[in-house]
Design goal:
The complex is a heterodimer of chains A (660) and B (176). By secondary structure, chain A is an alpha+beta fold. Chain A is globular. Chain B is mostly helical and 176 residues long. The interface between A and B is medium-sized, with 16 and 16 residues.
């Protein structure tokens, strides 16, 4: 027995001696690509692998590059795409570049989980790794040597190299802390507005322009908000309404009369009161908006009758709402209109750094004006002017659908007035919904301007090439990456394969530019398979719009925008609503990178700090009055206790490296 | 049967070896504790040094695991109880050779890392007192290990030779 034990132990010892040897072997093609033969790229004499493996995880098996629909798709040329095959776009791409593409993705796996699992095996199971919200990990692992430095291979990606040359800010935004570029990002339609304010226009005209449709109202509102702008006009409309309230309680008639009188005296040039809020003449500020919200909140009978034909007892009006609770940080965007405080430096709720007027990277959520803004939101919420459930993360309802799209349903009692959301889908949700200009505010000077912070940006999505791949596989992957920056690749990723498009006809957008136009087969198929949701059809069935490294174009979205959506674009473009961009010279208008590349030391330090979603949760607790927080000073203290100073310093260093 | 003094020495040395293995394992686990401050708060040179130190730690940890296995084999071969047979004898030779080589390697590296550690300016790191304890302790530990291993080998050899002589005598008597 003892000899057996001794033998076992000796075996363990030998195994541990062998296992601890450093693996000096180069990874060969048989572990990552199945490459058995090489093929020559005729143009450049560069050897390409015959096939490469792609691991592109998106957390949803409908959205990968493999067709996962139970129903086969028959293309116009008769080709049948069935479950398990690559989607048409990817079949097209592999044909064009002459490299077979194998999808090795665990189809439902989230991208971050894919990265963790792949890191454990040294990224040896595929040539290309990609997905959503993993840019930081791609840069991090890249700096550790797991992905190739694309800068070393720009000569083999001439189109991508040209793209970077033309977009130096994009190049900076994807540069890791060691000065290298490890991933190609998904870049949204930069230079275009993202989300905008929308509202039911008939509510404004009905309440302000005539008394004909007004019903008797019994609702009351206890005033809390005291107004912000004390230097824009002689009088402040909120102060006027508050003074007119009886014992601090407002009725509809009092609120409305004060507002109408105020508009008449302050804006005599307007043809009608609703012009203060609607169309290109709009010039309302946040106080004037809150004054309108009060009138709206106090008019449930009038507004329910307007929508349904009869007064609906128990109607609940939400003057402002967000699409869902996970979008609750859209409420924080209102803080910008209390004196121009920047809130998000990029198109992400987690993007809480922006550049101040001196060009310094600044953490918005801890700025004085931001914290002051929280107190204003608290008061506005207390008056019932923000949808009561907006911040309840346990509530997974689609509030936009509930408050905009169900007016005609029997028993509907909840109606929303205004939101902040994407043009195409929001204007399509209700025929009365139109875009409205944002409230005016000051930003970089004392001049009042229309400003909207949310614009389309470089996304924290993309893909990279494993350093464990063979040279032939790397060459093939580089060819694939570069393809998306050719004219042909750009079109196929944005609009689908040629069989989806009109052959000799282009689409003219509201900006006057021409874009590839979807043909009838595509539109009919989108109706048949996805209830007309062309975006979902293009992504889930055709295989385009997947967030890998490419530049998205606005022409796709224009084609599924309705007339009111086009009017929304025209409104913002004609007025020239100011926004942020990568190329802005004034730092207050400059976008920051979507993610920052930090060193492992900095990452370790960040792990010792307590700057996280706890403070954000406290903010919403303050706004809704649902917890122990009654003042924004408590939020400030939370940040101080969490180590905000060191947190900001780390990101400042990271930003400095990226922009050198 | 009463054990001879030589066997008793062998037994004692065996248990010393086992205890040292446990000490070495614990040592390898705590090796980086103090050094982590260099990573967290140090400058870029200290961070680079920390990463190299991690490689040394990996080597020490791997070695300590083997020492624990060696300890188990000592028990399996009854080296901690009595005179060994041929397998125990061969095993002890191999064990001693391996430990000597590895310990000598570490004894060369530890002072080098210690010297580099002492070369840094720690004034910029708040609340940090540099300490060379891990290097000094490690150096002592592996020196003791080499000595213990060699002494154990010698006692095993002596006891094994005695066994061989005893077998010859009794074999001779039975043939008379």
């Amino acid at each position: 027995m003892k000899k057996l034990i001794a033998l076992l132990l000796a075996t363990m010892l030998c195994l541990s001696l062998v296992a601890c040897q450093k693996d000096d072997q180069q990874t060969s093609g048989d572990t990552s690509g199945g490459q058995q033969e090489e093929q020559s790229d005729q143009q450049d004499d560069i050897k390409l692998a015959e096939s490469i493996k792609l691991n592109i995880a998106l957390g949803n098996n409908q959205r990968t590059i493999t067709y996962q629909q139970a129903t086969p798709l028959t293309l116009p040329d008769g080709t049948v795409v069935s479950q398990g095959s690559l989607k048409p776009t990817w079949l097209y791409i592999q044909d064009k570049i002459g490299v077979k593409l194998e999808d090795v993705t665990v189809q439902d796996q989230a991208a971050s989980e894919m990265m963790d699992v792949s890191a454990a095996t040294g990224f040896k199971n595929a040539t290309v790794y990609g997905g959503n919200s993993i840019a930081e990990q791609l840069m991090d692992y890249g700096a550790q040597g797991y992905f190739i430095n694309l800068k070393d291979y720009l000569d083999r990606m001439p189109n991508f190299a040209k793209y970077l040359e033309e977009n130096p800010d994009i190049e900076k935004a994807i540069t890791a802390y060691d000065g290298n570029i490890y991933h190609v990002p998904y870049v949204a339609e930069i230079g275009n507005y993202a989300r905008v304010f929308t509202a039911r226009q008939s509510w404004i005209t009905t309440l302000l322009d005539s008394k004909d449709s007004l019903k008797d109202e019994t609702a009351t509102l206890k005033v809390q908000y005291e107004g912000y702008w004390d230097n824009r006009h002689d009088k402040n409309v909120i102060e006027l309404q508050n003074e007119a309230a009886t014992n601090g309680v407002l009725t509809r008639d009092v609120a409305l009369d004060v507002l109408l009188q105020y508009i008449e005296e302050t804006y005599p040039e307007l043809e009608k009161p609703s012009d203060l809020y609607l169309g290109e003449t709009a010039k309302y500020d946040i106080d004037e908006l809150v004054a309108l919200w009060r009138v709206i909140k106090l008019s449930p009978n009038t507004l329910s009758a307007l929508e349904t034909g009869d007064v609906v007892e128990g109607t609940i009006i939400s003057p402002f709402f967000v699409r869902k609770s996970s979008y609750r940080e859209d409420v924080l965007r209102l803080i910008t209109y209390f004196g121009g405080q920047r809130v998000h430096g990029s198109d992400s709720y987690a993007s809480r750094f922006y550049l101040n007027e001196d060009g310094e990277l600044t953490f918005s959520y801890n700025e004085d004006k931001f914290l002051e803004g929280l107190d204003y939101l608290r008061d506005i919420y207390a008056e019932g002017l923000i949808h009561s459930e907006f911040s309840d993360l346990n509530n997974k309802d689609n509030f936009r659908d509930l408050l905009y799209a169900r007016d005609e349903e029997e028993g509907q009692k909840q109606f929303g007035f205004m939101t902040y959301d994407w043009i195409a889908s929001t204007t399509a949700s209700n025929e009365d919904v139109v875009a409205v200009l944002p409230p005016v505010t000051t930003l970089d000077s004392d001049e009042f301007i229309h400003f909207i912070e949310n614009t389309r940006t470089i996304k924290p999505d993309g893909w990279a090439i494993s350093a464990a791949a063979s040279e032939e596989e790397i060459n093939a992957a580089l060819k694939l990456f570069d393809f998306f920056f050719t004219e042909e690749g750009h079109i196929v990723q944005n609009y689908g394969i040629p069989q989806c498009l009109e052959e000799n006809e282009m689409f003219t957008g509201p900006d006057g530019k021409e874009y590839p136009k979807f043909n009838q087969w595509f539109l009919d198929s989108a109706n048949e398979f996805k209830n007309g949701d062309v975006s979902a059809f293009l992504r889930d069935f055709i295989g385009s719009l997947i967030p890998i490294g490419y530049q998205k174009e606005i022409g796709f979205e224009y084609q599924y925008t309705n007339e009111r959506g086009w009017e929304a674009w025209a409104l913002y473009q004609n007025v020239g609503v100011k926004s942020v961009s990568y190329g802005a010279t004034n730092p207050l208008y400059k976008l920051v990178p979507p993610v920052f590349s930090i060193t492992d030391q900095e990452s370790a330090i960040l792990n010792t700090l307590a700057i996280n979603e706890d403070q954000v949760e406290a903010m919403f607790s303050l706004i809704t009055g649902s917890g122990d927080y009654t003042s924004s000073e408590q939020i400030r203290q939370l940040y101080i206790d969490g180590g905000i100073e060191e947190y900001v310093n780390i990101y400042k260093q990271a930003y400095s490296r990226m922009t050198q | 049967m009463k054990r001879s003094a030589a066997v008793k020495i062998q037994i004692i040395l065996s248990y010393i070896f086992i205890i040292l293995s446990i000490v070495a394992f614990v040592y390898s686990l705590g090796f980086m504790t103090n050094g982590y401050q260099l990573f967290l708060k140090g400058n870029s040179e200290m961070v680079a040094y920390f990463k190299e130190l991690q490689l040394l730690n990996k080597e020490i940890f791997s070695f300590s695991i083997k020492l624990v296995i060696f300890s188990a084999l000592i028990v399996a071969f009854d080296i901690n109880k009595k005179e060994v047979g041929i397998f125990g004898f061969i095993y002890t030779i191999l064990q001693t050779a391996y430990i000597s080589v590895m310990s000598m390697s570490l004894l060369q590296k530890l002072p080098t890392y210690k010297a580099r550690y002492l070369g840094f300016d720690y004034s910029s790191i708040k609340d940090f007192t540099p300490s060379t304890f891990v290097f000094d302790f490690g150096s002592l530990l592996f020196k003791v290990y080499i000595v213990t291993s060699i002494l154990l080998l010698l006692s095993v050899i002596i006891n094994y030779i005695k066994v061989l002589k005893g077998v010859k005598k009794s074999g001779g008597l039975s043939n008379a």
